[in-house]
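Section 3.1: Structural characterization of target chains.
Under the original work plan, the team committed to producing a structural model for every single-chain target entering the pipeline before any wet-lab resources were allocated. The record below documents one such target. The sequence was received from the expression subgroup and is listed exactly as submitted; it comprises 537 residues.
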Amino acid sequence: MAVLIDLEKSTVLRAAPRLMQILRVLARHKFLGALFGRGHWPAPKEVRETFEELGLVFLKFGQVLALRRDLLPAAYIDELELLHNQLPAMDIHVVRATLIVQLGAPFTELFSAFGETPLAAATIAQVHEATMPDGRHVAVKVQRPGLKAIISTDISALTYLVGLGEKLFPRLRALDLPVVVRELANSLHRETDFGREARSIVLIRGALADVPDLWIPDVVAEYSGETVLTMEYSAGERVDSYAKLHPEAMPRVINTLVKLMLHSIFEEGLFHADPHPGNVFVLPDGRLSLLDFGNTGALDEPMRESLTLLLEAVVKGDARAATEAYLEMAPANEKVNRAELLVDIKAVIYEIRRTNLVDVSIGNAFESLLRAGSRNGVHNPGEFVLLTRAFVILESMIGQLAPSYNHMESFREEISRLTAQHFSLGRIKEKTTKLAREMERLINDAPSDTRRILRRIAEGNLGRLPGLEAVGRRFSRNLERLTSAIAFAALVIGGSMLLLTPMGGWHHILGETMIVGGIVGIIISRIRALRRDPDQH
């Protein structure tokens, strides 16, 4: 007799000892009493200390919650931001054993010199300076042992606690905690996947190769594995330390930071999600060096287009367009209160537009949108939350490096450059060619596909239906007309977009030509339709 195993229950059972330990800690810090109405919520400091006591996954959980100002009061957010990311260093014998297993060679053959004191020791890994036998100077990132088992157990326990809490206390549903736990699990998966980090480094190095004054250390592939990542050594100084000695260099540094962030987001769709001072160094020759790609975000083309539309709508003060662009980024949800969301986004845009440009914060604006969405039933996409986090961290660092510098002017200039590039003749030609090929393929393939489907239906159990081939031909003609109409409408829309750009010149001439061509095409298509089907009118 077969035995059916509920994998979800099995996972919870395996996590039961850890679950009981977590519950004891929560009870001791009065979380459970507050949930049952037998006391107040713990003070912000005690909440932070609870997460620190519970270890790695809960440290990260607190750090994820600290990014969600749409979910918790400001006092708790401010305290959770203090959660440390440092742990005692691993024993050097553990580090050596990991390197031998991962790289498959005796330690003495792997390195001619190896610094036993780590350069940094964080929750996921620690980094050591080393020299390879061929003389290359490298930084070796070694993951803490047993992390994946710890993470799996704690995520299972946390998922169970969140689900149970929502069933027992429906008011917790307003916090959307299952989404936060999923974000946490995804973040931990990214940070512990050194193969993914290596691929991200290679991609971002290629994407940002043309950004001046920037150097990203390359991966030493033959010295990297599942839990070891070896990179070129960055012989620089932390950017915050450098700023104290060279304040005059900060405008150039900030311009470079802004360029690399916006270029990687809007052009490549792959961005560094943790650009804090510990991950940005200044080399002796003045170039910036970007480190630690364990937490990167990826935006696909539809998400980038929606983000562009959102920014444009906010700048223009168009709350309705901003709402639609925001909802396009989020997963579909029938419970969204669109009317109230529109009201809240109007308020957000009003606050942004009444603020002096120097004081505007992109990160704070995105956080306000997240809060508006959460209040009205939107399941904020993890990519947008991660992007918001990146902007908040970047702008905080910029404020620390040069408090009086107008960084929004750098943002404005770079966005203008990207917009001009987006509407360049080469880019328009590329998009038009792609659209034409897609339309041609649709027009060529759709009629034959339709006839094939109709033929299979006609040859089925229902027998051959009279007039079915005629229906297929008529359907095919209508589909051809529809695709033609879409193509011509695309010309009109593209031309209109060019006319709306502030660049003038040949952009407006091309825009007017596209609009005229599209309208003429639509009229011709309509006349041909009337001539072919006089019996339908």
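The longest strand covers residues 125-131.
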